[in-house]
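Fold it.
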Amino acid sequence: MFDQNVLFAFALTLFAGLATGIGSAIGFFSRRTNTKFLSLALGFSAGVMIYVSFVEILSKARTSLSEAAGDIAGAWMTAGGFFAGIFLIAIIDKLIPTADNPHEMRSVEDVQDAVSGGPNRKLMRMGLFTALAIAIHNFPEGLATFTAALSDPSLGIAIAVAIAIHNIPEGIAVSVPIYYATGSKRRAFWNSFASGLAEPVGALIGYLVLMPFMGPLVFGLLFSGVAGIMVFISLDELLPAAREYGEHHVSIYGLIAGMGVMALSLLLFL
């Protein structure tokens, strides 16, 4: 049923999604938050996503849409798909309350405060809503990673690594409210780990729904939308999160490094 390219793309998406478990582990087993590392990593991830979206993904989208509808119509459809992707992820972000939003950054110190405060069973409902928010928010990210990997495995690896870096601090953010809700480190860790499954689930559903209709038109629209999603994530979540960790300049250095590494990797595969 699935060829090797599909399985590889799915494996990359699974890797990216389950990186939330790494963040959860950091939250429970580290003594303090390494703010410089997280700022650098988040900036690097944003740099990869922004560069590859504008230089590679939108280019591929326009080529496909021009093939399907002509140069002028293809250009308009590429721009439309890009902003449609931004609108989609922005609406999802808007519908998730701030308190439950997985991209509201937490730190290792927050986890330790939760431990010292003891369990609070009344927050179980909050923990369940947080898990639901994670699933909704990560769904389009999984589709983006899977689509890119299916089109170009080397491109997919770069995006999967960027998404995985993005999911590490997210895992910390998930662990805190779930620990508050249950009083259990183990349960908080496994719920955080499992929340990342929304990304491969998104990839699988997207594959089953879209692949029967896949052609230059659908591929181009999907790719332009993916570019919009990744640019929004970078500008609305990754860079602001890096700044919240208090290392603004370090995040910009990471951003430039991410762009440079992505540019170099694309040039080496010409």
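The CA atoms of residues 25 and 100 lie 20 Å apart.
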